[in-house]
Write a structure and sequence with these properties.
CATH topology: Beta Polymerase, domain 2
CATH class: Alpha Beta
Number of strands: 8
Structural class: alpha+beta
Number of helices: 5
CATH architecture: 2-Layer Sandwich
Number of domains: 1
Length: about 180
């Protein structure tokens, strides 16, 4: 049986977790895969695997992933995001920093210094099957998906973002 993109992305998530643990680098899943790990089920196909990582660890992370066969793409600028690809698996690391008030902020680019939602990195571990992974806090995930068209006016809300917001909101409204 052929291994599909979902399985290859899950393998890449496991590989990235193993590698970052070896390096002592913190990462958090964001986007659709973070939602799936929060819900404990695969909800849809994913184009890529989105992560957050600290900007001061970006060079080591990029070097370690390129040593494992990933190619670091030139765009976007590496002070704001690392995009890497190996075969048909894409990894995207949005880079974080802290400001003088210790808030988590955008590390570089035109929005450098802009704060991310409070508590965003407090999502704990999500789980999908036997794989556990740090995820961003689901409420912050909703806020990011809701605000992206406001923060980036040229980027309209996508149907998958609206569906993700509804899934996350429903899960958060259920008693735990």
């Amino acid at each position: 049986m052929a291994v599909g993109i979902t399985e290859r992305q899950l393998e890449a998530i496991a590989e990235t977790l193993e590698l970052t643990q070896q390096l002592g680098v913190e990462v958090w899943l964001r986007g659709g895969w973070a939602m799936d790990f929060f819900l404990g089920e695969i909800t849809r196909d994913h184009v890529d695997v989105d992560w957050f990582a600290w900007s001061h660890e970006a060079a080591r992370l990029a070097a370690a992933l390129t040593d494992r066969g990933y190619t670091l793409l030139a765009d976007p600028p590496h002070d704001q995001q690392l995009d890497l690809v190996r075969a048909d698996v894409e990894l995207s690391f949005a880079l974080l920093a802290r400001d003088k008030q210790e808030r988590v902020v955008v590390a570089g680019g035109p929005w450098a210094g802009e704060p991310w939602p409070d508590g965003m990195l407090d999502g704990g571990l999500g789980q999908l099957g036997g794989l556990r992974c740090p995820i961003i806090e689901p409420g912050a995930q909703i806020e990011i998906k809701q605000m992206m068209p406001v923060w980036v006016p040229g980027r309209p809300r996508r149907a998958k973002d609206a569906a993700d917001i509804a899934r996350l909101a429903a899960a958060l409204s259920r008693p735990r």
